[in-house]
Amino acid sequence: MRANCPPPTTATTGPMGVQRNGGYPRLVTSSPSAAPNETPRAVPMWRDRARLWAWFSEMMRFGTVGLIAFVVDTGLFNLLRFGPGELLGHKPLTAKVVSVTVAVLVAWLGNRYWTFAAKRSRETAAARSRELMQFALVNVAGMAIGVGCLAVSHYLLGFTSPLADNISANGVGLVLGTIFRYLAYRYWVFTSVTDADAEQADIPAAARAPQADLPR
């Protein structure tokens, strides 16, 4: 006579996520309330100390180069007009053009090889010429911002005092022009174009196919 034994009613969990109920294996499904693995969120720059310090260092280098270029501009202008020999004593406009040109070259070299050294274009004559031309255009636009602020303040708003002219041109205009120059240098002039990138861009798309796609 066979013993009357009821089947086990308590569920036990075996290895590999298999639940055994009454001796028969049954797959265990995850609860719908269990939260899936979340992808890590991007850390804001102001919380990332390394990125924040890199940005701060870049801003300090940019300001230092700008200060040196300003000293070169004003110093060379006064030297040409009032220095020994007064080479351009009676030609203030010519003296200013020469001083600004030299200051722009100094600023370009300082930003290219120091401020944005890791993002400068490839070392070719064409790339350097393009970069210098863009740099000059940005400086012309930055100067136009300062002149525009002075024009609006002096002629449109009617603030004609020396203090108002200095605030509009050397205050508001200088700040806005500096912000414009920095953003233009960072995102348009110095764009990390290397020789490898240029060569890759010149290669046809079919030739740039990965090795795994090539017939064997």
From TrEMBL:
UniProt KW Secreted keyword: no
Main localization (coarse): membrane
Residue ranges occupied by any GtrA/DPMS transmembrane domain in the UniProt entry: 61-190
Residues that span the membrane, as ranges: 52-72, 92-111, 132-155, 167-184
Location in the cell: Membrane
UniProt keyword list: Membrane, Transmembrane, Transmembrane helix
Xref: InterPro entries: GtrA_CellWall_Glycosyl, GtrA_DPMS_TM
Keyword presence, RNA-binding: no
Membrane topology annotation: Multi-pass membrane protein
Region (Disordered): 1-41
Family (UniProt): Belongs to the GtrA family.
Protein name, UniProt field: GtrA family protein
Lineage, opening ranks: Bacteria, Bacillati, Actinomycetota, Actinomycetes, Micrococcales
